[in-house]
Design brief:
By secondary structure, this protein is mainly beta. It has a single domain, classed as Beta Barrel (Lipocalin), CATH 2.40.128.520. It has one helix and eight strands, in the order αββββββββ. It has an eight-stranded antiparallel beta barrel with strand order 1-2-3-4-5-6-7-8. A hairpin with a 2-residue loop joins β4 and β5. The chain is globular, with a radius of gyration of 18 Å. The relative contact order is 0.15. About 10% of the residues have low confidence.
């Protein structure tokens, strides 16, 4: 009986560990300003803003994408905005995608890696990821 339980436990633990390393879910940005929900669509991973610390403009209207370089997109709301797009999973990492920063209206190359309850998100100017910065996002339960 004991051997059966131990065998089952050893079979289940890798599955639980793999699930814990999954990027899908809600992640709070390192500065606490937003929560991004990462989701899978086909073979791509994307992420949309689902919560903002400051969800409104000073006049009380919903926060909008005022810094977007495309004038036709400057009135879209930040909550619901897709800021991560087209990341592909390979060898436990997610890369080849883009991240949009609504604070400055710029889009960067993006890669991510889950380390426990921390998502290491790297935005970079070049595809190799040499010129950029890495942010820690924290899993929300």
């Amino acid at each position: 009986m004991r051997k059966t339980i131990l065998s089952m436990l050893f079979m289940v633990l890798p599955i639980v560990a793999a699930m814990a390393q999954d990027v899908v879910g809600k992640w709070k940005l390192d500065d606490g300003s937003a929560i991004v929900e990462v989701y899978r669509q086909g073979d791509s991973y994307n992420g949309k803003i689902v919560w903002l610390k400051n969800p409104t403009e000073p006049d009380g209207t919903p926060a909008v994408d005022t810094n977007n370089p495309d004038p036709s997109l400057r009135k879209r709301q930040i909550i619901g905005l897709n800021m991560l797009s087209d990341l592909k999973k390979a060898d436990g990492e997610y890369s080849g995608g883009k991240i949009y920063d609504p604070n400055n209206g710029k889009t960067y190359n993006c890669s991510m890696k889950v380390e426990g309850d921390v998502l290491k998100v790297r935005g970079s100017l070049d595809k190799r990821g040499l010129i950029g910065r890495t942010m820690d996002w924290y899993r929300q339960k």
